[in-house]
Amino acid sequence: MLNITDDIRQLKRLIETKAQHPYLLKYIQKPSLDEDKLLLLWGLFSDLDVLSEKRNQYIISTMLVQIALDTHEIVSNSGEGVELPEVLKNRQLQVLAGDYYSGLYYQGLASVGNVDMIRILSSAIKKINDNKIILYQQGSINDVPTLLKTIKAIEASLIHKLADYYNQPEWIDISEDLLLLNRLLAEKRSYLKSGQSIVFDVLREMPFDDSISGTMLMSEKEERVRTQFDKCLRDARQSVQCSMRKLSKLGDELQERVNVILEQTESIANSYVKEG
Q: Which residues, 6+ apart, have CB-to-CB distance to 192 below 8 Å?
């Protein structure tokens, strides 16, 4: 495989340079870069017979799409009700920034004349947004498999669509499993820190499959939600370990990163803020 450390470092510089806009950065935070998704994209394309120039452009364009999605997500998750003028301006600039990053992705792919890639990523964007609606729409998810499938679609559709186009099913598996585990880890941390988590909220809305659930105390129901979440976390860890074994070529950096995530999820499993 290629020198992953140097390549990743160079790609990060190129993406950050592309995403910089002096006026936007005066008012909104610097866009964050999901380095795990970048690492997975590098792994996928390093397994393909693609010229390095085009490979870099495809990876950069895909990461710009991710940055655009993440930027719009900040807007949708921010405050409600009456807003101060400066807050409203910040929200409007977040929307414009997301649109700006999307425009950069189109520009990049147009420069290499790849209409197929534009179509693939546009399809992924639609799938991600459709599943975000499902996740946040109260009562639309009634079982755990549907919840996990929805999270996978949100987190991994960009890489899934590319891996499917290039007929690389093993990269679909590892991307979905690892990014699901990452998302569950983030949700658990959010729950421990603030008590807030969309995944915990969805689990609370799910019907229990026994006759005594109607008489349970709130604390008992919450404990069942925690138990269900931790099972999801453990199952996701096992899926990642299984998916890693399917990859014929695996860079040391990806293996090391996966090991770190597995250690983090193991240490956080079954841990909760003390109550009372």
A: 268, 271, 272, 273
Looking at residues 184-205, what average pLDDT do you find? 94
Q: How many CA atoms lie within 13 A of 1 on its CB side?
A: 20
- Between CA 106 and CA 118 the distance in angstroms is 7
Contact between 41 and 159 under an 8 Å Cβ cutoff? The reply is yes
pLDDT tens-digit map of 9-29: 899 999 988 888 777 767 667
The radius of gyration of the chain from alpha carbons, rounded to an integer in Å, stands at: 20
Cβ-Cβ contacts under 8 Å for 32 (sequence gap 6 or more): 67, 70
User: What sign does the dihedral 206-212-216-219 (CA atoms) show?
Assistant: negative
d(CA 212, CA 122): 46
CA distances from 27 to 96, 107, 200, 234 (A): 12, 24, 33, 40
Predicted confidence (pLDDT) per residue in 197-222, tens digit: 999 999 999 987 655 555 567 788 89
**Residue written as token pair 């585990």:** 181
Contact present, 146 and 205 (Cβ < 8 Å): no
Q: What is the pLDDT of residues 45-76, one digit of tens each?
A: 988 888 888 889 999 999 999 998 988 887 65
Tokens representing 98 are: 């997301």
Q: How far apart are CA 58 and CA 42, in angstroms?
A: 10
Q: Which of 118, 185, 32, 181 is nearest to 12 (CA)?
A: 32
The single residue listed with the structure tokens 């604390």 is 219
pLDDT at 149 over 50: yes
